[in-house]
Hints:
The structure holds two protein chains of two kinds.
Chain A: H1 4-15, H2 23-35, H3 41-55, H4 77-91, H5 95-101, H6 108-112, H7 128-134, H8 136-148, H9 153-182, H10 186-197, H11 203-220, H12 231-234, H13 236-244, H14 250-266, H15 279-283, E1 294-298, H16 310-322, E2 328-333, H17 339-350, E3 355-359, H18 360-369, E4 381-383, E5 387-389, E6 399-403, H19 405-411, H20 437-442, H21 463-495, H22 510-513, E7 526-532, H23 534-550, H24 556-564, H25 571-580, H26 589-608, E8 617-622, H27 628-632, H28 663-670, E9 684-687, H29 694-710, E10 715-720, H30 723-731, E11 740-742, E12 747-749, H31 755-766
Parallel strand pairs in A: 1-2, 2-3, 6-7, 7-8, 9-10
Antiparallel strand pairs in A: 3-10, 4-5, 11-12
Chain B: E1 5-15, E2 23-28, E3 49-52, H1 62-66, E4 72-74, E5 77-79, H2 89-93, E6 99-102, E7 104-107, H3 108-115, H4 119-125, E8 128-132, H5 140-152, E9 156-161, H6 167-173, E10 179-183, H7 189-196, H8 201-212, E11 217-223, H9 231-241, E12 247-254, H10 258-265, H11 278-289
Parallel strand pairs in B: 2-8, 8-9, 9-10, 10-11, 11-12
Antiparallel strand pairs in B: 1-2, 1-7, 3-6, 4-5
Helix pairs in contact in B: 3-5, 5-6, 9-11
Amino acid sequence: MAERYLREQIDEWFERDYRETFMERIERLLESETLFAGEEGAIQYGHTLEHILSGISVVIRENERIAGAVKMWIPTKEEEEHITAVYRKWWDMPTKERHKKILFYYSEGWLKCRPYWFPSFGHLAMDWETILDKGLAWMCRKAKRGLDETCNEDQKTFLTGIILCYEALERFIGRYAAEAGRMGRTELAADLSQIKEGPAKTFVQALQLLWLLTLVLQKVCGCGVLNYSRMDQYLYPYYRRDVEEGRLDREEALRLLEEFFFKNNEIMVQTDHMSQEIQTTAYTLEVAYDDPNYLILGGKRADGSTGVNELSYLMVEAAHDLGLRNPFLVVRYHEGIPKDFWKYSVKAMRDNTTLVLYNDETMIPALKYFKVEEPEVYDYGFFGCNDPNIPAYEGGLRQVWINLARPLELALNQGDYPLKPRGTAHRDERSECQFNIDDRMTGLMTGAYYGTKTKPLEEIHTMEAFLEEYEKQVTYLMGEFRKGFEMDFCVEQKCTRNKMRIEDCFLKGTIENKVTWTEGGTKYHKIVTQGCGVATVINSLYAIDEIVFRKKEMTLPELAGILRNDYKGQEFLAERYKRKLAKFGNDIDEVDRYAKIVTDIFIRAVEAFNGSEYLYQMWPTYSTDRDFTTMGYDVGATPDGRRAREPLSENQSPTEGTDISGLTAMLNSVARIPFEYITGGPLNVRIHPSAVAGEEGLEAMCALFETYMENGGMQLQVNVVDAETLKRAQKEPEKYKTLCVRVTGYSAFFVEMGKKAQEELIRRTEQAV
Amino acid sequence: MRECKGKIFNIQRFSVHDGPGIRTTVFMKGCNLRCRWCHNPESYERETQIRYFPEKCRECGACSHVCPEGIVVREKMRQNADRCIACGRCVRECPFGALACLGEDKTADEVLDIVARDRKYFDKSGGGMTVSGGEPLLWSGFVSELMARAKETGIHTALDTAFAAPYEAFEQVRPYTDLVLLDLKIMDGELHKRYTGRSNARILENARRLLAEGIKTRIRVPLIAGVNDSEENAWMLRDFLEGYDCVEEIRLLPYHNMGLGKAKGLGMQMEEFAAPDAAQIEKLYRILKEK
């Protein structure tokens, strides 16, 4: 159990009013808009950070061993309206104009708190190891040396901005040190003074520096959704040295970690960002509201040995003790992972700790396949939501959700889109690129998409021939995305000249190359390319094979006609296809073989538009996040009995309600996906608590998950909860405040999710074995 | 030789309550007891049956179109269901999954094909295959073949029996049985007869022989409040098992009412029982464990 003072803080946090806002940041930020208007990109950025950091309060609480918090209060109605109006003013412009100011964004909500001259993307891992090992002054000196070399004007501006940021950070930490001194907290003051400019020397100093950076990155700059990467590796030397020299013991380390973990939650707003309709999400004025920060444990080291060490256990224990949603722990499985650590991790999962499993044996080959090199490939990790990341060597956020059910529909209609046939669409619609600028900016494929003209169905006589047409459509859409991406990139290169973002201070390559990561500063640039609706497509392809080519119940044109009409007048047929045709997730070879076929097609299409001519490479994942519903809305009826506009299958899961043969059968099916080409994405598994109760249940769960990994599975995350509990939590939310569930790539407190999301989770949980 | 087939009403994968580790449980159809609390009432009859799910039915008439016996669904009831020959045509036809076939004839190889797919999970967890029911010993020929095949491929086998069958039936299966899960429901003969329809004389006699042979056994007792949750029953059970080292475990399985819905779908009436409270269960465990 966490210490009492921490428990009290957690309780207080649960009670905090959702309107409490980090007003100091907002006030200083608004001031800086006019103060530094007209300055060059990176310099304006640096001055803004400096202005905020010099003005916000320094908060040190009595019992805390790690300092760093922000002062929050509830704004008045007028303040709230004023801020909202300013946010609107910043971004109230056509997408084409917006794009010149920010390269990518998730949603209006995500955008609103990010000023156009002070943007950050987050979704990445800094070079934490070097930061701790060398300290801020060392990094600053490196940038200054860069300035001394020959630089063009843009490079000069870039490095000057970077230096401003380092110095602002040093002064900010200096203010903390002074405050600690004033309070008579000698030890804390000494630690803070050390890390103000210098490297961390002890475990607590390392956590302190990490924390203050997190606070600034996430809460001030909006550089959230961080990957702490392999913390059990890079903190271990500090831990070991402290223990050996008698400065630290296991218990104290645990206490510090729990404090650090809690702080990751404390700066968040109690809400669920994916439930846009709920009041807490709609209200928030904050730049960070429920960003998950990932933390990677275990895994193979470059020399092949296990990374599991004492700290790995301690971090699982800390997360288990707290039961909060952050950080989001990833335990990396590998052959020969210590049995007791595996059991320890699985036990935490059974208790609904925010902990998920990934498989080194598929992830490392997959990343290598997409040209990630040794040794950094061994340090792979993730940021929320389950997106792959190479710490320090890679920028971050570029993302596209490829809806794999769309090309299937296009193949059945020679490239036309039945929900809005080409004839009725505006002439210029989608003429430039199938992915219009709005979709390119958010990564989602919305509305009408048209394909290339493939063979008339009358001329298709075998399943193989149909698969060829499907592949043409997948490839065509992938090509359209690449075309749009490169068009945008040309614009970006013009607009990003001399700009910086806070992450540029802490990556490998940006300072050396004197340019922001988005323009080539780092070694790797990836586009997370998320294959969506995989089970829907597998089932649909199997259905076509079965109905048209094997049983010859009807011809392909007849089937396509029924689908175009959304099974109108054939409703029973839809029901029959839904229930009587075999489905993915039941360990049936004839169906599951399509898992490989679909994946091969997807990968070939990705590869067709990767290569050295592009700066950004697509890394394929299987992940829908929560967007399987919105994506399904734009897809007509499919041959698996799915009606038009119904949701697609979620992440890597079988279509809802169709895996009825037990967990082992489901996992066997999913393991048929050749994951050694897939670089991430979640498989949500719901387990009824009674199935894994007691020591025997735990052993069974360990064996189940380990076997899945051995069979070539990639990822697993579970909710061990029954539908009854969730329903009770809906009725009595105050009793279930701490019930934490995994949603897709993040965890949420169940009672804070929107009603819709709650219902969805309950429905899915009811089917749990 | 004609391959022998068994009537199976369910193959449940990732079973974790029917013996050690992760198991696949094969449920044989047909039972010679009629335990009033039975949670698998679909296992009573040896023949295939049609189960009807009124909540899924939309009375579309698809089933009556194909029914050779003229059974019609009306007002969420299968009219003249007693005429049913369980041919299964209606099940195949129903678009809504409102009808299901309970009981399928399968060969040992067909069953093993499914069971063996989880081989790695068994090996990793110390699990295997459990043959349950109904009463699997009513299918001793088939079950011995199935378990023999499983043993040949190195899969651990368990037999879940209530033992109201000739001991010879068990002897047929015994060479291929690694573990017996033995149900001893009520120790008092009269009570046993009242609640299960049969006396327990043969069951207990079989059990004695089994234990005397030293075959690894786990005892399972479905626990029904007011029926067999008395301390007296626990003491009798304890005395009965005294001295047999081959008894690995005694497990009390508190009653749950999930059988009621199934019974309704089969047109059967079943009464509802209750589970004893946790304190009582704890007390009984104490009696059974202290030696």
